[in-house]
C-alpha cells in the first residue's frame, strides 16, 4: 500500500502579494506575516483567522520579528520600524514608535535578540558593515566590519546569546561565514569559514546556542559548532536543488527545515542531516518558514497523578511567493 504524500493542515489566505517573512508572537498565540506590498497580517493561531492588518511600509517588507510587546519590520525602502504590539492588539495605534534608515540594497535582513532585558538588533549599514544597536532607543553600540579581501556584501545575519555573551553570525556574498563575540567595548571576530561557494542567504542557531546551520544560493546545508575558538563543521549535506531562502531549527534541536527556491520545504534530522520529509504544496518559491506549537484540546494525555493535560502539537509554517501560508503538522 502506497503512503499518501503529506498535505498542509491549514492554508492562510489573505495576502495579495508574495509572502516574504513570518514570525510568531506571545507564546505562539499569533502568527505575523508580511508581503511585497508592505502589508503585515496578524493571525490568531487558535481559530486561524486574521485579526487585523495594516500598511507598514511603502513597498516590499524584507523581514519581521516580534516579542510579547513589540514588532520590528524592515522595508525595501530602507526603513526599520518598531511597533507597539500591545497597543495594536487593543486597537489603539498603528503608528510606529520609532524608525530609522538601514541599508537594504543587498536584501540583508536584520536580526534581533533579547539580551539583559533589552532588545538588541543587528542590521546592515552599507555593503560590508553591520551595526548593532539597542532597538528601542536606536542608539548604535557596535560596528562589525570584516576586512577580508573579496568577502563581498553581507547577505545574512544571526544575532544570539551564548553563555551570557552577545554573539553575531554574518554570511557573505562570497560564501564565507564569520562568527563575532560582542564585548563591552568592541566586536571581535572568532573565526572566518568558507562553507559555501555562493552567497549565504540564511542562518540559524539552536536554542542551546551550541550549533549553527547555514544555507544559501548553492545546495550546501552546513551544521557547525558555535562554541569553539576555531571553526568546526559538525556535519554537512547537499540538497538536490540549489537555492534556500530560509533555514530554521525547531526549539527541541531535533529537526531542521529549509525553504527552497524550488517551492519545496525540506525537513532534516539534526543528528544525521538526512532528509525526513519533503513537503510539496506551493506553486512558487518558499521565502520564509517558522516552527510553532499549538495547543489542541484533542491532543491530551494524563500525567502521573491522572490529571488530563493538554499536549501541544508541533507545526511548521511556510510563506511563499504564491501569496499563501501553509501550516503543517510534523513529528
Automatic annotation (TrEMBL):
Record-stated family: Belongs to the WD repeat ASA1 family.
Segments annotated as WD repeats: 12-53, 314-331
SMART domains xrefs: WD40
Keywords from the UniProt entry: Repeat, WD repeat
Keyword Nucleus attached: no
Database matches in InterPro entries: WD40/YVTN_repeat-like_dom_sf, WD40_repeat_CS, WD40_repeat_dom_sf, WD40_rpt
The protein's name in its UniProt record: ASTRA-associated protein 1
Gene: asa1
A UniProt-annotated Pfam family: WD40
Amino acid at each position: 500500500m502506497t503512503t499518501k504524500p503529506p498535505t498542509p493542515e491549514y492554508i492562510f489566505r489573505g495576502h495579495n502579494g508574495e509572502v516574504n517573512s513570518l514570525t510568531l508572537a506571545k507564546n505562539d498565540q499569533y502568527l505575523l506575516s508580511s508581503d511585497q506590498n508592505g502589508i503585515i497580517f496578524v493571525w490568531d493561531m487558535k481559530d486561524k483567522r486574521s485579526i487585523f492588518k495594516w500598511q507598514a511600509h511603502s513597498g516590499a517588507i524584507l523581514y519581521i520579528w516580534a516579542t510579547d510587546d513589540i514588532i520590528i519590520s524592515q522595508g525595501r525602502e530602507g526603513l526599520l520600524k518598531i511597533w507597539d504590539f500591545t497597543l495594536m492588539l487593543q486597537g489603539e495605534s498603528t503608528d510606529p514608535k520609532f524608525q530609522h534608515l538601514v541599508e537594504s540594497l543587498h536584501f540583508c535582513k536584520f536580526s534581533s535578540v533579547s539580551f539583559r532585558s533589552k532588545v538588541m538588533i543587528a542590521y546592515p549599514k552599507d555593503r560590508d558593515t553591520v551595526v548593532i544597536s539597542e532597538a528601542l532607543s536606536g542608539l548604535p553600540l557596535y560596528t562589525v566590519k570584516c576586512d577580508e579581501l573579496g568577502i563581498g556584501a553581507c547577505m545574512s545575519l544571526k544575532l544570539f546569546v551564548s553563555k551570557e555573551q552577545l554573539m553575531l553570525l554574518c554570511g557573505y556574498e562570497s560564501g564565507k561565514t564569520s562568527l563575532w563575540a560582542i564585548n563591552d567595548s568592541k566586536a571581535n571576530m572568532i573565526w572566518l569559514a568558507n562553507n559555501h561557494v555562493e552567497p549565504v542567504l540564511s542562518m540559524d542557531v539552536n536554542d542551546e546556542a551550541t550549533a549553527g546551520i547555514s544555507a544559501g544560493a548553492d545546495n550546501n546545508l552546513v551544521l557547525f559548532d558555535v562554541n569553539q575558538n576555531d571553526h568546526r563543521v559538525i556535519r554537512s549535506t547537499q540538497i538536490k536543488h540549489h537555492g534556500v531562502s530560509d533555514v530554521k531549527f525547531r526549539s527541541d534541536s531535533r529537526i531542521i527545515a529549509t525553504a527552497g527556491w524550488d517551492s519545496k520545504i525540506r525537513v532534516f534530522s539534526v543528528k544525521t542531516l538526512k532528509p525526513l520529509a519533503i513537503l510539496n504544496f506551493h506553486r512558487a518559491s518558499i521565502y520564509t518558514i517558522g516552527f510553532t506549537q499549538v495547543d489542541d484540546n484533542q491532543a491530551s494525555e494524563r500525567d502521573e497523578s491522572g490529571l488530563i493535560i493538554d499536549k501541544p502539537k508541533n507545526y511548521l509554517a511556510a510563506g511563499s511567493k504564491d501569496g499563501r501560508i501553509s501550516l503543517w503538522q510534523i513529528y
